[in-house]
Amino acid sequence: MVYQISDLINLEKIQKLTDSFYKATGIPSAIIEPDGTVLTGSGWQRICTHFHRRHSHARRACIESDTRVSALIGKKHPYAIYRCPHGLIDAAAPIRVNGIHLANLFMGQFLFTGPDDQEIEIFRKRAAEYGFDEAAYIEALQEVPIIPEERVSCILDFLSELAQMLAQTGLGNLRQQQASEKLQMAHDEMEQRIEERTAALVEANEKLAYENFQRRQTEDQLKVLMAEVERANRDLEEFAYVVSHDLKAPLRGISSLSSWIEEDYESALDQEGRGYLLDLRNQTRLMNSLIDGILQYSKVGRVQPTPEPIDAGQMVNEIIETLSPPPGIRIIREDLPRIVYDRSHLYQIFQNLLENAIRYMGKPEGEIRIECRNLPGLLEFCVSDTGIGIEARHFDRIFKMFQTLGGIPANGVSTGIGLALVKRIVERHSGSLWVESERGAGSRFCFTLPIQEKGFGTQPHPAATVLIIDDNTEFSVVTEIMLKRSGEKVIKAVSEKSASDALKLHPEPVDLALLDLRMPQESPLRILQMLRKTRPEIKVVICTGSNEPELIDQLMKEGAVGVLYKPFRSSDLVRILNEHTTPKRPETT
What is the mean pLDDT of residues 119-135? Predict the structure, then answer.
């Protein structure tokens, strides 16, 4: 693991320590990273801070001098003493931890002896060159401390050894803290597993008792068998997840151990050895992806889908943002409808198809297009790309488990499960999946889904704009998610002023405002009056977690149109939207 000096020592305490050292000895010092970043500084001389560092050309020379000093510090020379471009003496020693050069300890600015007339004349010329006030500049020169040359190496040794000792101690403390955190995480994970398994056992026992009671009350063997099948499916799912967790634990251990070996034995490993460790970590990541893919594949057939209204366009945008395609790949999304589908299943379909399109582009630039068209009783979605394409003889093979084609680019690893999972999901929803492709001419993956009669819209409804005024960040985030799932636009504010500012930045019409009843140092009545005065079109709904009828009645008389009691469900929010905005949205459960 690569550390920075700021990870190992408390810079604030080091600053106080060097400040005290300067007050006691008059010896200035600083800790500076190899790239020239100043971390601490004590006793910086006025001739530098008020003159050299304030002039652009002089400052550039100072920074170049600080960065070049790293090259002067070698193994044969534990420190460097040099004269800066402006005639002052600086000394520097490296701060190394475990052989790694983390920073430099600087001692300066100072002079070995007091400046003579000739040297003072040089400083006068420099003042004239940079346009400094000569008298003030020479006065600042006289303040520069005088440290005999024979004392410099002793002082530098003391300061650098002190810094290295503190950094080494910090490294030990950091590693101990990391080990403690990992131990605590393992402990918490074990406790959680115990709680989950205990809860599952209690639930299983309760269900078994209920089934025994049902078995005594009926002679219908079919019902008994169906209950057994259902219980077996639950046990199988639980077993699958337990096995998944137990398999992933050693994989994480293998990955961590390989990283530690590479870190702790860096000097003993050659390029080939590091390559083997990298291959080991890549294989553990692939195994982890295989386990996840198998679980997702097996879950599709066991878990009952939960259809709900979904804005397909918004979901595709979220997936594209998560995948972060390379800048040379252009993704074009046509207008996509709102549909009724299982949310996690639709997400897996688009994620796998888009990820494959990006992975198999085979060139730095290309185009991906997502489109949809209406068919009799069906919707057809297609994801097409301009990538490497697929030969027709592989069309059936690519939809089978663990089947991959050659030519996988370096930016991804294929498990051979993605398309098999997509096919299983689509067929689970009574749809079809196929591919149209030609080698070297790109690919086009299409799938269909049946149009459901209830709660289905082939086009997104016009979005309402909703202003949330609440100082509770968690409530605002949850409410925003609910509104965006319904396809609405959201503006958020935490006070009367921020609400007023938000409306100024959003000149378009706002349909609805959700106003919290209780915010510290804020008057809901004043906020309501501000909204009514500046935006009469906004309908205001009061949100509250308490029953305050007098205040609510007062707000209703002032123009509020309704009340939402916290915590509220998505269906309550949809009801408010349907009452006070248009058009009607599908009711949710």
Answer: 90
